[in-house]
Design goal:
This protein is about 55% helix and about 0% strand. It is mainly alpha-helical and about 80 residues long. The chain folds into two domains: about 45 residues; about 30 residues. The longest helix is centred in the middle third of the chain and has 20 residues. The radius of gyration is 15 Å and the shape is flat.
Length: about 80
């Protein structure tokens, strides 16, 4: 799958984009995987920007979600209904 490059990344995670890519590459990720993860990173950054959230806010949300998932029995649907779309 090819990802379209739309130019420079925007949002609160933009200053970390180069370091994120470098870290993935240093861990042995294939170039196509680095591109895929970078595209996801960019989407998260744009979402944070649109929601007027800072990276620390996303960290709290992600940790809450992960905690809820780990506490739930296997096969239980995620707590999607607890968050507004």
């Amino acid at each position: 799958m090819r990802h379209r490059r739309s130019g420079r990344m925007r949002g609160p995670l933009a200053p970390y984009a180069a370091g994120f890519r470098a870290e993935l590459a240093s861990r042995g990720y294939a170039p196509v995987s680095v591109e895929h993860r970078a595209a996801q990173f960019s989407q998260i950054s744009r979402w944070l920007d649109a929601e007027r959230l800072e990276p620390i806010d996303a960290d709290v949300i992600i940790r809450r979600h992960a905690s809820a998932r780990m506490a739930a029995p296997l096969g239980t649907p995620g707590p999607r209904d607890r968050y507004d779309p």
